Amino acid sequence: MPESVDYLIVGSGLTGGTLARLLSDVGREVLVLDRRKHLGGNVYDEVHSSGIRFHTYGPHLFRTNSKGIWEFVNRFAEFYEYIHQVSTLVDGRYETWPITTDTLLRIAGEQWEPGFLGSPSNFEEASLRMMPRIVYEKFVRGYTIKQWGVDPKTLAAQLAKRFDVREEGDRRFSRHRFQGLPRKGYANLIANLLSGISVRTGVDYLQCRSQFHVRKMLIYTGPIDEYYNSELGKLYYRGQHRESQYLPNINQIQPDSVINYPGLEDGNLVRQIEWKLMMPKSEQLTITGTLLTTERPVYPNSPDEYEYPFPDQRNADLYAAYRKRADAEDGLIVCGRLGEYRYYDMDHAIGRALVLAKRKLGLVVSYLDSAAEIEY
Ligand SMILES: Cc1cc2nc3c(=O)[nH]c(=O)nc-3n(C[C@H](O)[C@H](O)[C@H](O)COP(=O)(O)OP(=O)(O)OC[C@H]3O[C@@H](n4cnc5c(N)ncnc54)[C@H](O)[C@@H]3O)c2cc1C
Fold first, then answer.
1. Is residue 60 lining ligand 1, measured as CB closer than 6 Å?
2. What pLDDT score does 376 carry?
3. Alpha carbon nearest to ligand 1 atom 20, residue
4. Which atom, in ligand 1's list, is nearest to the CA of 336?
5. What is the pLDDT of residue 374?
6. Domain limits of the chain?
7. Which residue's CA is the closest to the ligand 1 atom numbered 52?
8. Strands (E), the chain
9. Could you identify which of 80, 88, 237, 268 might form a hypothetical disulfide with 97, taking C-beta atoms 3.0 to 4.6 angstroms apart as the criterion?
10. Which residue's CA is the nearest one to ligand 1's atom 49?
11. Which residues of the chain are modeled with pLDDT < 70?
12. 3-82+177-234+308-373 in CATH: which number?
């Protein structure tokens, strides 16, 4: 006999976790499954034996412009202020990232002109609209080739919206109104988010669909193509191979917690993270040594390694075909970064879940302010 449940949520990341919380808050019966051994999806974090906290799936900085979303996450964790800064290593020198106007002037001269004028049709043109070619070549082109494994001219222009050129002295990686990190980590935040809700880890829903009878709604936050056995084709992703190294005798090695490596001479290394620098200053002082993680992009084989949806037309069209199928099915919501094949920041994942709770589940959602809703 299949197990009956009103709401079955596949995936315990921020999308599934937020929807589970909202449903549970109004007394609905919910069961959350995750095929990983832990809860939290890609925001999961751990603590190294040295006491240094690291994020298992790459650095996750929380930021949002929405007061409602900020209040929502603060319900489950205390946050400390952390303003993220990034440097990029260009010609052997640490430069600020995103690029600032003084760097442009120093490298390209007072009379610099954008490398492209007009309406951009691809990522390279969109980047060149912001900066001269020499700066693009040094800061952006190599990083992009390594990150995506293709010529930047083949990538969507929209991807260039992820960065801009800043005024001199503006070192904030992000200019969001609320920024911080959970004092006890994301794994703890997720445990609180899902507190009192039935959860099962190590269960792959796609391997045991027939074991469940869903009375009201199946909410699936895994890869949409996998849900349909890749019948129309596979969606492409980029992922990263991470290698970590603990240096017991070194206190600090980098000027910032994240260093970008845009040079093609650095092989496929794109970033190195020094985790300690993300911890509160008072905690940093109590730590011996430092923990570093390098990131090298790959085409992942396992869905657990899927990170960035591939920003080109082939994948946009294929996703649209899967979306049509999912939207035609009653009793099913396919959502989240893997279900909607879309890069969502954490606040966007939560905001999107709030919107779906209102529109598709008919819930009254108090955290949904205009800053949260406006983006979807
Ligand atoms: C490298 C990287 C860095 C990032 N940094 C930031 C950052 O600094 N700031 C920021 O705001 N955002 C960041 N993000 C985005 C953030 O990770 C996402 O917003 C968030 O993870 C989305 O949550 P989700 O629940 O949609 O997906 P996920 O976290 O991926 O959760 C989906 C869950 O579904 C489970 N699942 C899938 N299929 C099945 C199945 N068949 N059966 C059972 N379980 C299944 C998975 O195991 C997973 O746990 C980053 C993302 C990446 C890739």
1. yes
2. 57
3. 346
4. 26
5. 58
6. 3-82+177-234+308-373, 86-171+237-298
7. 307
8. 3-10, 30-34, 45-47, 53-55, 62-64, 79-80, 86-90, 93-97, 178-182, 198-201, 212-220, 237-247, 258-260, 271-274, 290-298, 308-309, 332-334
9. 88
10. 41
11. 371-376
12. 3.40.50.720
